[in-house]
Structure formats: C-alpha cells, structure tokens
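input
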Amino acid sequence: MNHAPYIAVEGPIGAGKTTLASMLADELQLPLVKEIVEENPFLDKFYQDMDDWSFQLEMFFLCNRYKQLEDAVIPKLTQGQSIISDYHIYKNLIFSERTLKGIKRDKYRHIYHVLTDDLPKPNLILYIRADLEVLLERIAKRGRSFEEDISADYLQQLIQDYDAAMTSLAEREPSTTIITINGNEVDFVANPEHFGQIVHRVKECLSQ
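output
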C-alpha cells in the first residue's frame, strides 16, 4: 500500500460507519472526513415518498460528496497525507441504482461518472456488514427523526445491494483492499478487544 493511504469505512444505514471511522481516526491520528447526511433537505420527503424525491436526494448527496473530496481529500493525498472517510463515493451508485428508474437513472449515472471517474479511490475499505435486525436496532437507538420511515424491506434490499457492490468493487478496483467486519458479532464500541483487532488489521494493511 502506498505511503499515503486513503481509508474508507462503508456499510448500509445503521452499520456504524461514522462511529468506527471516528474511532480509527483518533487511534491512528488521521484527519477524518464525514459525509453530510442530516443537512440534506430532501431526506424527510424521500423516506415518505421515494419515487418523487429520489433524484433530488441523490443529486444533493453526489454534489456534496464531490465537493468534500475536492476540498478535503484530494489536497491531503496530494501532499502525501493519509486520510480516513466514513464513506466511499461509490455508495452514490449503490443507492441510486435502487431508488432511480429510467431516464433519471441514466442521467444520474452519466453525471456520476463525469464527476467521479478521475477522483482518487480508497485503497483500503472497511466494510461493516450486519443483518437487518441489527441495523434496525441501531437505527432506532440513534433516534434520527427522518429515519423513522425507513422500511425493513428497503433496508434488507440495501444489505443485498451492498454485498453485491463490494464484490463489484473488488473486481473493478483490484488494488483496493476490502476488510469485511461482521457487525452482528463484532462490537467495536463496547468491546475494546474487538476494536483492537480491527486496528491491528488496518495497521497490517497500511504496513504492506
């Protein structure tokens, strides 16, 4: 792995991406880039009516993540500084392929590739995979009002979409290392030993 690793933490809604990314950033003394979620003005509307508001929602996320990468990630990597993020911009395709249809999906795909194809890609991804019951419990525990309308069917489909996306990323970006974390069994918040094991695996990858 190169001298300035770009680490991304990924997983479906409620997996604990931001928590783990924040913990690793503190442990490894790396700058952290956190995605903008609650600031998206279309979230409430989207979970109430996905068909009407999906394009606006996805475009807001795409433009904001692109701006974050342009302002916060690229300059640091250019200067040889490592960085950690609580998302991979590829997640925009994971969500949009499920929520958009027809011409809107085609337009979105085109805009996505125009904006992101030449952006730096993470060379280490921590993929937190968890079952539906675990995700629902964590979503309920954090109590975000706009997530109250998330359906179990949508979340279950998202789990499957993420599994497929990680397989696709492994094929599309062979230089990227993907570490899968079993979110059903690994509690990196409450169990220091579990977190220590993750840190050890990350350090092993960074030293290669």
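quick obs: The radius of gyration is 17 Å.
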